[in-house]
């Protein structure tokens, strides 16, 4: 594995600069041809843009949540994620993306650890949950190696929330993974 990149973390603002850079990153990592450069992608499941500027701004401005950005030494956006406080006990982790050209180098691992630390420190929660499309075994295994447990809970896939595109399968749903944040 290449030497881990040194990252600077900060909370995203609703500025055009943050919104545009984050939108580009998320769209390139999840779906479409660029996402295939990474080791895990939704390109075979969904052909849409994942999120639009209004949806992203809503996450950035969400009073109960933050979008966390990780920049590299050169000031380029390398990764992002969303952390949402559900209640006193639980936070939700989502919109996790690493630049496809820089995946598998340890950035994702650092960002997930930072997000867990943020949830513990700032939101004071004890647990983190996330939703992963059930077919993504390689990604679920990655989260299990990071201390998550796959629960029996499932949630419907938001087929009506797709952005400028369509689903390529009609059997999608989310599996819910949870981690006890007191176990580091
Ligand atoms: C998931 C994601 C954020 C991980 O970021 P990353 O920077 O690649 O993560 P890391 O470099 O820390 O870890 C890479 C892991 O992939 C593993 N890996 C590399 N190539 C792989 C392959 N072909 N198949 C399976 N695992 C592979 C590595 O072994 C490593 O796991 P380990 O640390 O347990 O050994 C990134 O791949 C991404 O943006 N994916 C697209 C968007 C997405 O799916 N987000 C999550 C939605 S829930």
TrEMBL record:
It comes from the Eukaryota. InterPro entries: Acyl_CoA_acyltransferase, GNAT_dom. CDD domains: NAT_SF (cd04301). Residues 7-169 form the N-acetyltransferase domain. GO terms for molecular function: acyltransferase activity, transferring groups other than amino-acyl groups. Gene3D superfamilies: 3.40.630.30. This is N-acetyltransferase domain-containing protein. It comes from Hapsidospora chrysogenum (strain ATCC 11550 / CBS 779.69 / DSM 880 / IAM 14645 / JCM 23072 / IMI 49137).
